[in-house]
Write a structure and sequence with these properties.
By secondary structure, the chain is of the alpha+beta class. The chain is built from eleven helices and 21 strands. 33% of the residues lie in helices and 20% in strands. The radius of gyration is 23 Å and the shape is globular. The chain starts with 8 loop residues before the first strand and ends with a helix. 31% of the residues are buried.
């Protein structure tokens, strides 16, 4: 792609982009609105990942289809998305529009560059929950190509984005299949093809796992270097997707070990559960579970805890209004049936095969994303 970078204009972000602040107070409109929080935006993913299942009383700022949603709280998480519907968002999200000099669809790609987040991180205020203010962001400077070159650049990145989305869709279909199998397995009358033939016995979740409440007073001295919050666990993904550094500071003290299952007990409707592949600290909003090997193969426990019936039971037994939480003492009473250990081993082999294919697609998607960001820096830098 031949570009005339020598004629590109240096502009302030605030000269070509504005954040739109329109609030919705009408009860009837609010009742039918779709609510989006920071949790529904995913790092470096331009698609909104879902909506809240009910009205969020503290949300009032509207957004329109086509606007760019940017999480200004903990902006280092790199959460930018293109709205594909109208809705109401968290006060921690800005709805952004360009003024015509910059093509609207190109804006999120500019905001995915490393240089953008270097500036954002350097100009955010606060410690534990950093916050970006508009006057600071409006002064961010970048090179603005002429319109004809913007269109060429946009075409390239939209093509890459389409390839990423196609790979993601294939990965998503396999994840849905895995969830379907888990859902049929977690029942008082479980199903799993021909691998279950009346060889089941009734148990409670508490028979399959126990809660760990271990804590660390001096985590670094105990060799614990990383921590996990709910934001590091994504729905439908049994792998922890990120972590923070204990050395950078954290209020978390709860310890988890490699092989434990981390279950998001706060707002369980978000369906967050993952298997730990390292030792670390986690939020108090996460329940740490250890498998009982007498009743269940430890590697099979994550597939049980990530099943929809478990989350539904957790939601129905949660306490609190704005931020409901489920307690293990209640969740452990959920009734189900499990096959014998021999059948569990065969079932686990099926899940492992599915996970292998999911991992391959995930790696392919990661390669495409790396290419995209390499080109972002080379072309827009």
């Amino acid at each position: 792609m031949k570009l005339r970078k020598d004629i590109w204009e240096t502009v302030d972000f605030g000269k070509v982009v504005k954040h739109v602040e329109v609030n919705e107070r009408d009860p009837l409109k609010r009742a039918n609105a779709k609510y989006v929080s920071v949790e529904h935006l995913e790092t470096l993913n331009l698609k909104i990942q879902g909506v809240a299942p009910e009205e969020q009383p503290t949300f009032s700022r509207t957004f329109k289809k086509g606007q760019i949603l940017f999480a200004k709280r903990r902006a280092y998480q790199k959460k930018v998305a293109i709205a594909d519907f109208d809705g109401i968002c968290s006060p921690h999200i800005w709805a952004l529009e360009t003024n015509g000099k910059l093509i609207q669809e190109l804006l999120p790609f500019i905001m995915q560059r490393d240089a953008f987040y270097d500036y954002v991180n350097a100009n955010s205020a606060g410690t534990m929950s950093t916050y970006l203010k508009w006057p600071a962001l409006s002064k961010y400077q970048f090179k603005l190509p002429p319109k004809d070159e913007q269109e060429k650049i946009l075409s390239l990145f939209l093509t890459l984005e389409k390839q990423i989305e196609q790979t993601e869709a294939q990965e998503g279909n396999l994840r849905k299949l895995r969830t379907k199998l888990s859902n049929e397995l977690v029942s008082t009358e479980p199903k799993f093809g021909s691998l279950i033939n009346g060889n089941c016995r009734k148990v409670n979740l508490g028979d399959l796992a126990k809660e760990s409440r271990a804590t660390a007073k001096n985590p670094l001295e105990e060799g614990i270097e990383r921590f996990v919050g709910l934001e590091h666990i994504e729905p439908g993904n049994l792998k922890i997707k990120g972590s923070g550094n204990v050395a950078d500071g954290t209020t978390f003290t709860k310890v988890f070990e490699e092989g434990d299952v981390l279950f998001g007990r706060r707002r369980a409707y978000l369906k967050k559960a993952a298997k730990a592949d390292f030792k670390g600290l986690c939020s108090g909003d996460i329940t740490v579970l250890k498998a009982n090997p007498k009743n269940i193969l430890p590697e099979l426990l994550p597939y049980y805890m990530s099943a929809d019936p478990v989350f539904e039971f957790a939601v129905s037994n949660s306490a609190g209004s704005l931020s409901p939480r489920a307690k293990w003492r209640d969740l452990s009473k959920m009734e189900l049936s499990i096959p014998n250990l021999k059948s569990q081993k065969e079932i686990l082999e099926v899940f492992h095969l599915l996970d292998k294919n999911v991992e391959e697609l995930s790696n392919q998607k990661a390669t495409l994303k790396k290419l995209k960001h390499k080109l972002l820096d080379e072309i827009l830098g």
